[in-house]
Write a structure and sequence with these properties.
With 338 residues, the chain is α/β, with parallel strands linked by helices. The chain folds into 3 domains: 44 residues, lambda repressor-like DNA-binding domains (434 Repressor (Amino-terminal Domain)); 99 residues, 3-Layer(aba) Sandwich (Rossmann fold), CATH 3.40.50.2300; 135 residues, Rossmann fold (3-Layer(aba) Sandwich). The protein has 12 helices and 12 strands. The protein has a 6-stranded parallel sheet, sandwiched between helices. Strands 7-6-8-9-10-12 form a 6-stranded mixed sheet, sandwiched between helices. Strand 1, helix 5 and strand 2 form a beta-alpha-beta unit. Helix 1 packs across helix 3 and helix 5 packs across helix 12.
Length: 338
């Protein structure tokens, strides 16, 4: 589905400047009648619809940006939301925030409600399931919308996608553990069949394939609870596994708790690498080795991208990935027990 025409499109087709189109929309007496008629005819021709409420917001240097997140309980998403909101606030924009709690039905409801409130743009980290109920509504509204952190709608020409480089993250995490002579490495967490799980696991699979090692994947919710369960499963059913790359830090922290309860020494008996580098990762004991995604910087970058899209009609590329790095801490730095 094509994007909604902008005043830049009107100006290009009519052969006039963007400021002339703006003056016509404001009914300015400075525009000659024949020019006014040409611009109006061009609007009808290309299907341009003037959003007066959005224009009023822009003229007062205050706009509304919708932010819809799948799991605001996760500190990773909270830090992203805070960073994005603060960056937008510095430019005079107000953020309307909604949490869907991984429920696609709630997502469809809140997105429709946010659109009705006249937002200028949407940023969404989407829930899985019934994606069309959300994204087809956005497409019909013609609102600039970015998918972030997760890509569920394949129309990235219409809904550009941005995220940290998940594949690279799990690749360097696995290579780190291989460099420590891990005998067998598991990938723990992430629901099976979800694109974000495949993306975060892809580097792990690549590294093991290159090393000639068989993968072991324990799929499950990206939560502390599942991490604790995974520690029990690995100890009971897979005693040969001595290292793990986790889907996120919450899973890793849950595993650390589970192993501690069983008396296994993290960093000695078992090495763990998380993913995201939430604040708690550096504060627990032992401190968690993890893939740093600079989610605060990512939030600022997304804000800048959305504002350039709105204010300069500079649409973002269909897909962009930001750099990640491994932060080595105690869960993978200690020596093995003799």
């Amino acid at each position: 589905m094509e994007r909604r025409p902008t005043i830049v499109d009107v100006a290009r087709v009519a052969g006039v400047s963007k400021s002339t189109v703006s003056l016509v929309l404001q009914n300015s007496p400075l525009v000659r009648e024949e020019t006014r008629r040409l611009v109006r005819e061009t609007m009808d021709k290309i299907g341009y619809v003037y959003n007066r409420s959005a224009a009023n917001l822009r003229s007062s240097n205050v706009g509304l940006i919708g932010l819809v997140l799948n799991d605001l309980r996760n500190p990773f998403f909270t830090e992203f939301a805070t960073s994005l909101q603060m960056a937008l606030s510095e430019r005079g924009y107000v953020t309307v925030l909604a949490n869907t709690d991984e429920d696609s039905n709630i997502q469809a409801q809140v997105v429709s409600a946010i659109i009705e409130h006249g937002v200028s743009a949407l940023v969404i980290s989407p829930a899985y399931g019934e994606e069309a109920a959300t994204f087809d509504v956005i497409a019909r509204a013609g609102i600039p919308t970015m998918q972030v952190l997760r890509k569920v709608d394949p129309r990235i020409d219409l809904f550009p996608f941005a995220a940290p480089d998940y594949r690279r993250g799990s690749l360097i995490a696995t290579q780190h553990l291989l460099g420590l002579s891990a005998r067998r490495i598991a990938f723990v967490g992430g629901l099976e069949g979800r694109a974000v799980t495949q993306e975060r696991m892809s580097g792990y699979l690549q590294a093991l394939r290159q090393a000639g090692m068989e993968p072991l994947v324990l799929s499950g919710r990206s939560s502390r609870t599942f991490g604790r369960e995974a520690a029990e499963i690995l100890t009971r059913d897979h005693p040969e596994v001595d290292a793990a790359v986790c889907f996120n830090d919450l899973v890793a922290l849950g595993m650390m708790s589970g192993f501690a309860q069983m008396g296994r020494a993290i960093g000695e008996d078992f090495r763990i690498v998380g993913f995201d580098d939430i604040e708690e990762s550096s504060q627990v004991f032992p401190a968690l080795t993890t893939v740093h995604c600079d989610v605060a910087g990512f939030g600022k970058q997304v804000a800048a991208t959305v504002l350039a899209w709105l204010e300069e009609q500079s649409a973002p590329p269909p897909e962009s990935l930001t750099a990640v790095e491994l932060v080595v801490r105690e869960t993978s730095r200690r020596g093995r027990r003799p």
